[in-house]
TrEMBL record:
This is Aminoglycoside phosphotransferase domain-containing protein. The lineage of its organism: Eukaryota, Fungi, Dikarya, Ascomycota, Pezizomycotina. Residues 1-23 are annotated as: Disordered.
């Protein structure tokens, strides 16, 4: 067995993301080696590999002979085994089978660690919780798209096959969203009280916070959703929803390539991008069906680097752009979802509520900053410009200020928006939350639906 697969590599080529995980969680220098020893102890004669792509909230090792992932997570990012078990039961092989293996506690002698409040157990020693996951084979979608500078290519390179994303959208519609609808619970189910988690328990307060602190241009959308919030909460079934489908630019969507020609590289035959699985259910929870549709938008495009106007040579910023074929991909998705869930066509009230829930999902996932899992702050200009640009595009169908960097455009607004970084807590916006249901349906009918790009 190669020594490099038996123990941690200590080279300059090591990804900074792996090192950042340990320092970010105030772990000792020996922590990585201890993780390796734990993984090797499970199957001493089998190799252990370190995947090049590591998540922000965990450290992962691979046991290839057993098709098993060993994952180490700090307590604040612990997995909810009730949710991961439900995901595997509902979605089958699309979601990994997860088990709790134990925990590693690290002895710390440095006073600076003894005084730290981060990731500490009752003895002030940091720890990592250890899980095993069945391996979801495939490649993260962003890795596939990054190999194709333009999709679809206007001038295809002979060495690159043309991609077809329609099978991926079809699978997301039928194997993920339709299954979640079929397995959903009515809002009156007595089980929901135990199944609701952090976001599901605080939807009203979060919407109130967004209403108070998002930039003014988004207020009509927030008001539109607030006007029917009671219908969404009580009138939609609650479905198991992946809480980070768009993580790392849909990096949690694993795909495989299947050639339609004789060879995978057959340019004329092209390559279908097919769904293999959905990983990282750490933020998964039961939410009104339709909220999870926020994630579809990310599959319809990609993040690109664009020059900053007025900046120096080489100054760039990240911006999301739809694929030129996004309209057709969106149509494919909804055609397949409607075929799999006929109620979306037959029940116009249900369809309207699902569309509003989709807007709520976009507001929640791009309007509330992640902040290492805190989820307690509304995004604000200059600090969360990528999220604001996506909100502009996904909700309003345009980039605020055109191609100009949004951080350079101060937005005139009333006093309530001056602190758009307001932190969330369960009580700070109760007054707003109590009034959410005061907006009538007649008000929304008069104003019409919020503008959204393309067909819902």
């Amino acid at each position: 067995m190669d020594d490099e697969t038996e123990r941690p590599r200590n080279t300059q080529t090591e990804s900074s993301s792996r090192l950042d995980f340990f320092s970010r969680n105030h772990l000792p220098q020996t922590a990585r080696s201890q993780c390796w020893r734990f993984a090797q102890s499970l199957h001493p004669s089998s190799p252990v590999l370190e995947p090049p792509c590591q998540g922000h909230c965990s450290y992962t090792l691979l046991l290839p002979d057993h098709k098993t992932i060993i994952q180490f997570r700090p307590p604040k990012h612990r997995l909810d085994l009730e949710i991961t078990s439900a995901a595997h039961a509902i979605f089958g092989t699309l979601a990994p089978h997860t088990q709790l293996l134990g925990a590693i506690t690290f002895a710390m002698s440095s006073p600076e660690h003894d005084n730290s409040n981060n990731n500490n157990n009752k003895n002030n020693n940091p720890s990592l919780i250890v899980y095993s996951h069945s391996l979801i084979e495939g490649t993260p979608l962003p890795s596939i798209l990054s190999a194709h500078p333009e999709y679809p290519p206007s001038h295809p390179e002979p060495s690159l096959p043309s991609l077809n994303l329609e099978p991926l959208l079809t699978s997301l519609a039928t194997s993920y969203f339709a299954r979640s609808y079929t397995a959903s619970l009515p809002s009156t189910s007595p089980l929901l009280a135990q199944l609701k988690r952090r976001v599901g328990q605080t939807l009203r307060q979060r919407l109130a916070l967004l209403r108070a602190h998002l930039p003014a241009r988004f207020r009509p959308v927030v008001e539109d959703v607030a006007g029917v919030f009671g219908e969404l909460e009580a009138g939609l079934p609650w479905a198991l929803t992946h809480g980070d489908l768009c993580g790392a630019g849909v990096g949690n969507v694993f795909v495989q390539l299947r050639g339609r020609g004789r060879l995978l590289q057959d340019q004329e035959g092209g390559v279908d991008v097919e769904l293999n699985g959905l990983i990282d259910w750490a933020e998964g929870e039961y939410l009104p069906f339709g909220v999870g549709l926020y994630g579809v938008e990310e599959v319809l495009g990609r993040m690109v680097d664009v020059p900053v106007k007025g900046g120096g040579e080489g100054d760039k910023r990240r911006r999301f752009e739809y694929h030129p074929c996004a309209g057709r991909l969106r149509e494919v998705f909804w055609e397949e979802l409607e075929a799999a869930v006929p109620a979306l066509v037959e029940d116009k009230v249900l369809r309207k509520r699902v569309e509003k829930a989709r807007l709520l999902g976009l507001l929640l996932w791009y309007g509330i900053a992640f902040d290492d899992g805190a989820l307690d702050r509304v995004v604000c200009p200059g600090r969360d410009d990528e999220e604001l640009q996506k909100l502009d595009l996904f909700l309003l169908g345009a980039n605020h200020g055109g191609d100009t960097d949004t951080a350079l455009i101060p937005e005139e607004d009333d006093a309530s928006d001056k602190d758009s970084g307001c932190a969330f807590n369960n009580e700070c916006d109760d007054a707003y939350a109590e009034n959410l249901d005061c907006y009538s349906d007649s008000r929304n009918e008069a104003e019409g639906a919020c503008p959204v790009p393309g067909k819902l």
